[in-house]
Amino acid sequence: MDKRIYNILDILEDMYSDAKPGLEYTTPFELLVATILSAQCTDVRVNMITRELFKEYNTPEDFANVDVRALEKAIYSCGFYRNKSRNIIETSKILLKEHDGQVPDSLEELQRLPGVGRKTANVVLSNAFDIPAIAVDTHVFRVSNRLGLVDAKNVDETERQLMQIIPKHKWSNAHHWLIYHGRQVCSARSPKCSTCKLAKLCKYNMKFQGE
Q: Could you list the residue range(s) of the whole structural domain that residue 141 is in?
């Protein structure tokens, strides 16, 4: 591994050693629902919704039989509530019909569920089943490219390159390190480069320092 990359990962691990998932859940199914809801929505907002939602509905049986309008009303504030409601209901029915009501621990099977893309599947695998995975959201994409950990034009290529440079047993943790850094320091607008512990190793910062 390139020494610069090794140093970046080492510093990230030291900075965010207590990093953990932002979504609140108690079962793999709750995490699946919460992650579907999190598309184009903050974890904070999703948690506000699910704290109430999961009191009434928290199993595939519950959601398979819920009235779609009632579900739309309950999740309205997270955005795209119509599509998310349909996807959650359909996913619940598929889990009951094809998986005995259990969330599968396979990337391929998860991606067959409505509303579940590769990022959502990786979040579930990593956090619910402790299977090494790197879920690339906007924070991971932005931070890993800015730092120069990868040089990628899309999330799939970012994931592939990160998997090549990060030891597999650190994939899931590294996902959280990059998210935390994106939220706390390396924001999309006005990143805090002047106080960032990674500034001297960051290609984004070095580029502007050289201008």
A: 3-19+134-209
Question: pLDDT by residue (tens digit) across 30-64?
Answer: 999 999 999 999 999 999 999 999 999 999 999 99
- From the list 67, 137, 153, 156, the catalytic residue is 137
137 is catalytic: yes
Same domain, 101 and 160: no
Contacts of 22 (CB under 8 A, 6+ apart): 43, 44, 47, 179
Residues 151 and 167 in one domain: yes
Residue found under tokens 């709750």:
30
| 55 is annotated as an active-site residue | no
d(CA 34, CA 54): 10
Based on the fold, state whether residues 48 and 91 are members of the same structural domain. Answer: yes
The structure's pTM equals 0.92
With both helix axes pointing from N to C terminus, report the angle between 43-56 and 28-37 in degrees, rounded to the nearest 10: 130
Catalytic residue among 10, 119, 156, 207: 119
